[in-house]
Amino acid sequence: MTRVLGIDVGGTKVAIGVSAADGPALSAHVRLDTGPDTLARALAAARALDGAPAAVGFSTCGVIRDGVVRLAPNVPGWEGLELPRLLQEAYGATPVAIDNDVNAAAAAELRWGALRGVSTGVYLNLGTGLAAALVVDGRVVPGAHGAAGEIGYLQVTPGEPAFADGRVPLEERVSGGALATRGAALLGRPITAAELLGGGRAREPVDETPGGGQAREPVDETPGGDHARTLVDEALRTLAMSVANLCVVLDPERLVIGGGMMGAAELILPRLTAEIGRAVPFPPEVRPARFADDAPLLGALALARAAVA
């Protein structure tokens, strides 16, 4: 089997890996922090791993539009970077496939994971940010401008500050980064989304059914008590509504959910599944993603493997 190279540039780190088989296995890999000269350092590290790959897959935060990276303000020097041209100069005749990180993760799920065999589906990434990949006819749909699935920009309240105002309305309410920021402001101390979601899992429901015995008070172990619990409940309600609306629009057969917030899958999946079942005429099957770690890097390798084929 020919060797392929994958490079993933995220908001805070770069992951690079080599695969010699058509499967989610790395024969070598390395990680870097993002910062000044991110691309130059990434390409140097990639050459050190494999100087002559059969193809290269590149996963990037943001989207590629008119030959440059857009919607990627968090990596210094990345916004407006002419990434396709620079990669072509670096690799010459070697095939190079580029996509955003969420689309790449969906490509990994399509080739080896929970979307395999699916014709119409959605990959939802719940991480520091929020985005989706839309699958039609077994392929990820890029959209007219490469920005299909950028659901973080969905409005929650009519007329609220939105993209033109420098805002990302839905992402600012329900992503892992948003939960950490809002939780810290609420509690007056740093807290992670995982801590907030972990506390939410610890509650016991009150039994209010007739004849169901004496009702018990919920056990609340959420850091910060009722206020933090309310924040999590509100975020999950908003997320579930938005994902259900997305499923109404696309009518997928399967919804696959990945990203760092899925460490709290036992809290998140039932909430989303219930709202989808209530609101969507033909509810899709809901599954966790196969790949919890390095999904965009594995996606870059899937892109490279497809380029070889």
Structural description of this entry:
Helices cover 36% and strands 19% of the residues. It has helices at 38-49, 83-91, 101-112, 171-174, 176-187, 193-201, 226-250, 265-279, 295-308; strands spanning 4-9, 13-19, 28-33, 56-60, 63-65, 68-70, 96-100, 121-126, 130-136, 139-140, 254-258, 285-288. The longest helix has 25 residues, at 226-250. The termini are close together.
Question: Could you outline the blueprint of secondary structure elements for this entry?
Answer:
Blueprint: E1 4-9, E2 13-19, E3 28-33, H1 38-49, E4 56-60, E5 63-65, E6 68-70, H2 83-91, E7 96-100, H3 101-112, E8 121-126, E9 130-136, E10 139-140, H4 171-174, H5 176-187, H6 193-201, H7 226-250, E11 254-258, H8 265-279, E12 285-288, H9 295-308
Parallel strand pairs: 1-4, 4-7, 8-11, 11-12
Antiparallel strand pairs: 1-2, 2-3, 5-6, 8-9, 9-10
Question: How is this structure best summarized?
Answer:
The chain has 309 residues and is of the alpha/beta class.
- Strand content range: 15-25%
Could you name the ranges where pLDDT drops below 50 across 5 or more consecutive residues? 200-220
* Ends distance: 12 Å
* Computed Rg: 21 Å
Largest sheet: 5 strands, mixed
* Contiguous helical run count: 9
The total count of strands amounts to 12
The class by helix and strand makeup works out as: alpha/beta
Instruction: Give, in spatial order, the strands making up the sheet with the most strands.
Output: 3-2-1-4-7
Percent of residues in helices comes to 25-40%
Give the integer mean of the pLDDT values: 90
Q: What best-fitting shape do the alpha-carbon axes yield? A: globular
The SSE string, one letter per element, is EEEHEEEHEHEEEHHHHEHEH
